Structure formats: C-alpha cells, structure tokens
Amino acid sequence: MGKNDSISPKYQQVKDYVLTQIENNALGKDGRIPSESEFSQLLDVSSITVRKALNELVNEGVIYRVRGKGSFVSNRGTAADAATRYVTFIISGNELYDSSYLQITKGVQSFLSQQGCKLIIEFVENNFEQERELIMKLIQSETRGLLIYSVNPNAAKTYLHEIRKKSIPFVMLDRIPSGFPVDCITCNNNDGAYEAVAHLIAHGHRNIGFAAYDFYLSAEAERYNGYQRAMQDASLVPNDETLFFRRELDYDKLIAAIKNGELTALFCVNDRRALEIIERLTQEGIRIPEEISIMGFDDFESSKFAKVPLSTVRQNFEALGYEGARLLFELGGDAVRCHKKILLSTSLVIRESIKEL
User: Fold this and answer.
1) 279 occurs within a structural domain
2) Tens of pLDDT along 224-236?
3) Which domain holds residue 34?
4) What is the CATH number of the domain that holds 323?
5) pLDDT on residue 75
6) What confidence category does residue 334 fall into, taking pLDDT thresholds of 50, 70 and 90?
7) Given pLDDT bands bounded at 50, 70 and 90, which one contains residue 72?
8) What distances in angstroms separate CA 67 from CA 59, 137, 147, 356, one per listed residue?
9) Is the pLDDT of residue 120 over 50?
10) What percent of the chain has pLDDT over 90?
11) For the CA atoms of 55, 60, 64, 68, what is the dihedral angle to 10 degrees?
C-alpha cells in the first residue's frame, strides 16, 4: 500500500465514529459523548488523539462542552447546521467607522467566512456599563464565541468570570486585563515603542517626552515601558516634567518645555493623541518638526493626511482581527489548558513629523 493509500489519521477515525453515532441516532441531541479515557479504551487510541478529535468537533459545532460534566451532542446535531452559528464582536470605542475598527472587522470576517460562521457586530460608544450589560445579555443566548475590544479591560474582569462560568470561548483584542489570564491578541507594544524612541535617539534627540491617552490600558503601559527601556539603553533619563499621563494634556506646560529647549521630541502613545497635539501646537504657532518632532503609534488612515504627515509605529489591524478569530476557533472550549497571548509584529513608518538634530 502506498503512502497516499494509507488509512485516515487516528483522530479522524474518532471524529468519524462520533459522527456515525449521531447520524444513526445512537447519540441523541444533548446526548453525552464518551470521555477521553472511555474513547481511548473503546478505539485503542491515545488521549491526545481523542482530545484533538473532540476539539475539532467543538470547533465545527457538532458537540459542546460543559465544564466539569463532559461533552454533549449539539442541539443543532450536525456540522452543517452548526455552521450557521454566530460569533459576536463587541467593540467599545469612539466611533464605529473608525478606520482601525473597520480593518479589525475585515480581518475577523475574512476568517469567519472560511468557517461558514456569521459575524454579529455590537458597538458601544466608550461606556463600560453598557458594555457589561451587553455582554451579560449575550451570554444568555447561543453564540459560537465572543471577540471583545473592551473600553476598560480591568473592570471587565467581573463579566469575564461570568463568561467562563457559561463555558463560552472568548478572545480579548488589543486590550488585556492585568492579573487575569485570558486568550488575547495584541501587537508587540513594548518593542514597537522601543523602536520608535530608538529612532529618535539615533537622529540626535536626547530630550524626548511621553504623552499617554488612557494610561490605565495595558497597551499604553507596555508602550511606556518600551519608551523607558529605549531611554535607559541610551543612558538617558526622562525628565518628569515632560511626561504627560493624563487625558487632559497640559498644553501650557508642553509649550513651555518646547520653547525652553527641554523637549525636542515627543513620543505619543497613539496616533489619536499625536494628531490632537499636532493640531493644537500648530494653532499655537509651534512649528513641527522644526521646533519639536512628533512620533505616534498605530498608523491610522488619517495619519498620513495630517497637517504634518505623522511618523508612527504601524500595527496590522486586519491581522489583529483575523488572528483573533482564528484563536477563538482553536480554543474548542477546553477548560484545562494554558491561555495564549499572541503578539503581532509592528513596523516603523517615517513621515514629515520627525527632524534630525
């Protein structure tokens, strides 16, 4: 027998056995599937093989898991029926038509369309209470899983516990709660910020400030750590007077630092902050980049069209959505496992807001 004529993989044999039992009505709707150990003895296969087969059946919607009780036949019964199930993407943000949200959604949809799974988008305008109420409502209904872009991931821990009790797979996008392990996709914030600040240093800047936006977010804290690390590696000590952590930025203080020569470059935690600063400083007569260089993070679509085209760190929002959806399908409802944190690479984009000293 040639290699191409070999029998199907053992995990496929397990899948075929379960599907045959369902089709023959040996396992009715909500019928309990044998455990891993029972399958191992019945079909003479390893527990790892059984686990792979059952995970695929969960992903396909044929069976579902209940924490502490086992695996059961889905109410929909077959993979074809289960393919109509939904993934819900919850976005808590500033504007639904923000280009970054649209790119993330495009990535999510790109993956789900390959799985025959439909996407529901729920948008909440930067309001955590509405976000929490929406999540609590969603977990009472049938859903393939949740993708969550939270306005306040630390506060989200309250409802994340409830999602886990329901054994609903979920993945956090971009923003992660501290001290609470979750499956998540984010860009490499730390290294991206390091590369941006190192570029400023390499081009002669020594007095480099930092401007946050929502500093309670994990992504912003990671970018600040990258900023600090780049400064330390260059034996530079940040001036506390040029570190801006509040949403309401002190422009009088910022402008004074620029005019006094205490600040020649400013690393902004995101493009939203950077574009706001460019707009305000130009109104105040500050020339960019002649008097101060500005660096952002994200590479919004509008950044290249700003009054002064913005130098920034680009993250791939479409890949964020695609990989987030793919991770959601990999989870399979397995309760006993380690959580995954996947970091996506970034790249530096240099435009006209940076001047070499």
Assistant:
1) yes
2) 999 999 999 999 9
3) 3-80
4) 3.40.50.2300
5) 61
6) low
7) confident
8) 16, 20, 20, 58
9) yes
10) 64
11) 20
The tokens for 143 are 């859903």
* pTM for the whole structure: 0.76
CA distances from 69 to 64, 72, 82, 126 (A): 11, 9, 21, 38
pLDDT at 6: 40
Of residues 279 and 67, which shows the higher confidence score? 279
What CATH number corresponds to the domain at position 37? 1.10.10.10
Who's near 157: CB < 8 A, 6+ residues apart?
177, 180
Residue 140, phi then psi, degrees to nearest 5: -85, -15
Confidence label for 49 from pLDDT (cuts 50, 70 and 90): confident
Place of tokens 């081009």: 203
Write phi, then psi, for 250 (nearest 5 degrees). Answer: -85, 95
State the pairing for strand pair 312-315/346-349.
Answer: antiparallel
pLDDT of 19 higher than 60: yes
Residue that has been written with the tokens 């400023």 in this structure = 200
Confirm whether 353 is domain-assigned. Answer: no
User: Is 265 a member of any domain?
Assistant: yes
Q: How confident is the model at residue 202 (pLDDT cuts 50, 70, 90)?
A: very high
Peptide bond preceding 181: is omega within 30 degrees of 0, i.e. cis? no
Q: Token digits for 46?
A: 């390893």
Residue 289 φ then ψ, to 5°: -100, 10
How far apart (Å, rounded) are the C-alpha atoms in residues 53 and 47? 10
Enter the tokens of residue 200.
Answer: 């400023």
Number of domains in the chain: 3
